[in-house]
Amino acid sequence: MAEIGIIGSGNLGANAAFFMAENQIGNVCLYDIREGLSFGKALDLMEAAPVRQYRTSVDGSDELSSVLESKVLVIAAGAIREPGQGSDDLVQSNSSVIKELAVALREYRGVVIIATEPVDPLTALFVTESGLDPRRVFGFSGILDGARMRLKLSRELGLEPEDIDALVIGRHDERMIALPNYTRVSGIPVLQLMEEQRLLELASEVGKSEERILELAQRTNSFYGPAAALAELTEAVIWDSGRVASVSVVLHGEYEMHEGAIGLPAVIGAEGVRRVILPRLTERELEQLRSSVHDVAEMVRGVGGAA
Amino acid sequence: MKKVAIIGAGNVGATTAYFIAKQRIADIVLIDVVEGMPQSKAEDFLHAGPLQRYNVAITGSNNYEALRDADVVVHTAGIPRKPGMDRLDLMKTNAGIAKTAGQAIGEFAPNAVVIAVANPLDIIALALLRETGFALRHIVGMAGVLDSTRFRYFIAAELGVKPEDVSATVLGGHGDSMVPLARYSSVGGVPLTELLESDTIERLVQRTRTGGGEIVNYLKTGSAFYAPGASVAQMVAAIVLDRKRLVTGSAYLRGEYGHRGIFFGVPVILGKNGVERIIELDLTDEERAALDLSAEQVREASNNLDMLLA
Predict the structure, then answer these.
(1) Interface of A with B in 162-201 (CB under 8 A)
(2) What is the ipTM for the molecules in this complex?
(3) Do B172 and B180 form a contact (C-beta atoms < 8 A)?
(4) CATH of the domain at B116
């Protein structure tokens, strides 16, 4: 039985399976409601296995039951964003997919990673509709914004991206909140190497990444970056590695907020969110976060969920 | 493919070669005075090639001429520290070895970047600078990467987080006076000081300072080589692949941090030109005092070198 289930065998789901095979994270089963699609993607991937020396397998299935015994379930189903489409619009179309899955997964015992956009309201919606332990469900968000920020900063500073840590919290879109005081190079605060104003300019460009990729590639949104980040988070759960990453977590009193879900740094392990880390925010950052959480809660209520 | 020459085919040299080969960073030549030893290790490595898929050339030699055209030279040759032996006790023997090696590097690999690894590190780097006659920025000592990887590991184990998400800065001389900086250490961008109590941090700092000794005490007849080898390989990769990594390296100071004329562990940017930049951090009075103390120890030892090499 596959340790990793992926619901949605489109570009995001299939490329996540690809990175998981490349990094030998665990056996994967792809599932999609479109018949045959999962089998096709899985077969294509496994035909690369002899050359790429995969030691893990990728299978496809047309039955949801095939992924129910997994340790991790990645939900990458639903519609992708159209150019110019806002997340408020997208939540309408994707909330029915998430609700349906939430009901089907009420008995699920593993960890669920929500990658269907918009991640924050759909993570909150999934938790309330499924009744699963909120710590076993998180949305994939800030880890990707952080990765994009790291790339921007590495180009700006002429330094290796691997040495850069960039914490990005909040919504997974142009309202994301980059934290200059939690951006470091090999442990050294980046503000000792550059001006804060410039960092915020770069952050604003990062917030528009998704829209830019959508414009450039037409009719397809980003999936390599997101798939790589999904593979990382899956690995953290499968290997219980304690990865520190910004993910969308359901709020239980963090910064005195009790509803919705939002991107915050967390320690990820076998049981899902092991611990949420609360950075010391400036008044402005906290205000932005509160406003984002308020929007998320409104969106959840707008699609008939309890925030 | 670039070429890395490793002087000293002992445990540190050979383990460094392994990590370089495994990551396919560069062709490798192992050089040692002991006859047959570097050749045997090179051959043994090659026998593992079909399984490990290195795709790089590995050779061994007893002759410094094998340094020819090396892009990076790693100097590990020297006697290891024995239990209870201070790093400075090693100086006499190891400085003599560095003198001969430095002259050979100057002759056969005049364009190389040299990484000093043998202890006492900061002094050996100075000896290599003198004997090669190289530009200041072409010599760098490996200490901070090792000290900080130990600190990172201890932090990760304490917090139960993934070691690669932890960054840490350890400045100063490579010895008991090293200066681990909690303020410049972080987990996923979050400063250590927000995640651990100061008592806990102090315990980890102390363990980092004595990290090398802890291994020596276990081994009794040798010193660490896995973590040192991995640390050297990372520096070699930064130079050969021009990765512009921000690491702590022992660099020749010309007034940075208020010191001059010594090799000392400071944050540097490593690329194809060696030490491409030294980063000066804001320090508290307390941090600066600890660093000054460490610099004083390195300076005293450096003065001894003058007498030894005179």
Answers:
(1) 162-163, 165-167, 179, 182-189, 192-193
(2) 0.85
(3) no
(4) 3.40.50.720
